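pasting for the record
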Amino acid sequence: MYGPHELGMSAGQLRSGDWLSPARLRMIGILLTLAYGATWVFLLSGHGPFDPLGRPVGSDFAAFYGVSRALWQGVPATSLYDPEAFNAAVRPFTGAMQYVWVYPPTAFLAYWPLGLLPYFTSLAVWIGGGLATYLVVAWSILPNRTALLGAALSPAVFIAMIHGHNGLLLATLIGGGLVLLPTAPFTAGLLLGCAVVKPHLALLVPVALLADRRWRAVAGVVVMAVALSAIATAAFGSDSWVRFAQSGTLMRSMLEMEAVSYTKISSVFAAARLLGASLVIAYIAQGIATSGAVWLVYVAWRRALPYDLKAALLIFAGLLATPYVYDYDLPVSVIGLAFWAREALRTGWRPWEKSMLFAAWVMPLSMRAIAMTTHIGLLPATLVVSIALVLTRREPIEGDAA
């Protein structure tokens, strides 16, 4: 194993972040681009919508596409909450893969148009559109080429893309809402309200808005959430909400029985289970993390902290607060890193910040492999350390810019 000295880094360079030279960053970017390109070449070298291993290209997108096609063919939305009926409806696109539908009826609205296009065209529009809007948000926070390339090449974004999931959509909605909040609060609220398509990733947004008395933004959230819920009810029936509520039992059972490997789930609950904790201990750990995240966001947004710090803390704490955070949900964490970096560029970098920011940026690339080999879930620890470093900025230090 190589230590920092063998890799050309001293402890002082790690503390200052000077080891992240332009040449080293360019090399990392080139290597990631080659790796991502090779992965896509492999995935697209199979037959039809499947890769050479028989898995659907775009992974979870296949289920979203299948849902859309089923809805257009007249399959009742309520029946899709039954796992057997759901898999029968989407099997032409998912093959042997098994899925469940546990999203609220508002999520049907986001995926409904996908089936109007051929599979690969729809996948390209879904991924390309999500990436484009996400990059617009990233650019609006840090408008420079290096930051834009960093956002585009983020391992979290790559994972979301190969899964064809909605991580880029949620990053756009939450990140875009936070960008607009200081200048256009009602519009920001409308964007944040769209997160009802996957509400557990935006659990702490209402806490922040209420704590900071952002009443126009709260109004925007309520208007959009009510409007989308009303449209979903009109389109799919009120019984779809009943079935969604009943799916909560299935979600909890899947989490407790590890229907999805804990190496793929990035929450405090999963990290505790990976270490061998009982269900009771894992729930207690998650409860402490959730309670702490709520308290942190409430206190931070009540105080006169720099806005970028509040936004970063909201995103990091929001990921800690839910037991249902997966590796493909993490593009929003890059938006949090962008807010943090903008404040650091404005006031000067503190010790360890550059190295920690890079570690958090690259972490999704290896965290599943590390969890499989060491039984250590990296995301919660990464979030806690990032939050701690952000909180050191509560008080200015000598040399900070005004």
